[in-house]
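In this section we walk through a basic example: taking a raw amino acid sequence and producing a predicted 3D structure, encoded as discrete structure tokens. The instruction is simple. Fold the sequence below.
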Amino acid sequence: MYKIGEFSTLNHITIKTLRYYDEIGLLKPSIVDKYTGYRYYSNNQINNINNIKYYKELGLSLEEIKDLLNNNNKNVLNNKKNDITKQIIELNNQLNRLNNIIENNKKIELIPYINKPIVCKKITLKNKNYYFLEIDKVKKEIIEAGYTPIDRIISYLEIGFVDENIDTLVGYTVKEKVRHQHNNDSLIELFGQLKNEKTLVGHDDMKNIESLYSEMIKYANDNNIQIRGFATGVLKDNKVELYIEAYDLKEKNEDYEYYLSKYTPTKELDNNLVGTYIIKDILPDHLYMFNPNKQKNTTDTKYNELILNSDGTTNYKEINWNKKELVLSLEDKLIPLPIHLFKYDDKKYLEILMNESYEYFYSQRPMSYIYEKK
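The resulting token sequence is shown next.
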């Protein structure tokens, strides 16, 4: 018989672990001295320890090992075998995808903006499979509006993974320039961005669109790229080209430098703006995407409540306002933050293009802070 310390050294396993195995009923000592409480282990239990180590290496949990050793439950091994088989299949799928990327020169890259005229419709899909039912309906509307559809598109107007009730843009790239003149008010026409904007683009099989989006987010993070806006997939046969508006943060924000050089502050106020506002959403771009019944993003900000007083001050000493913008004072510099008052379902909202740190004004583009009037 071995004392617990001897058994620990003999089998290269800590006393703490042996006591835990005793506590959970995985490996109890052969004898516990009723007077001293000392634990003693037998030679036969050396084989038990070796089996526990072996099954742990195979990936079994302690609960599974306990069930296997104590109850001789062979289903534990069969279940683990099935789990490993599924993992192997998934890993082989990932390996094949990586090989396809390498062999077919599929890659993720930041490229100059490519203008793709798009006509689409905002649709909330019950789940992802409903896309294929809706796209044919939208195609008919696009043709009736006088456009020639080319490639199907889908844009998920969501931040984060959503599995049902998914807000999307569904439609087509079109041959013609968008006109904004037709009889179908439900269609949305997108015709491009500013000339100096860039696009993060990735290529893959259509079935891998969500995995590709994840890879692009990782790529952006690793390469100091700011993703802004939502991903739009252009579907060609069984392939997808995924586009996301993005900025290389290693480059200066020339737009903002130009804006500051032309900026002339004003003290003129707009009484329609006076009031108290509560943060509702922080979005990369709210155009066509605003839905007050569905949270799109974080509301994590130190400026949760914004009070625009009638004298041009606010409830924050570093912020004043006028009829065109908030004026944020950071590090002895004045930063104008354009504001826009709009209504939705008879409620008043403020959209403010905002960054909360001075260093970001020359690199990251501002986000849209959406405030609802109290």
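Looking at the output, two observations stand out. Helices lie at 4-11, 15-24, 44-57, 62-71, 75-103, 131-144, 209-222, 254-262. The chain has a mean pLDDT of 82. In the next section we compare this with other chains.
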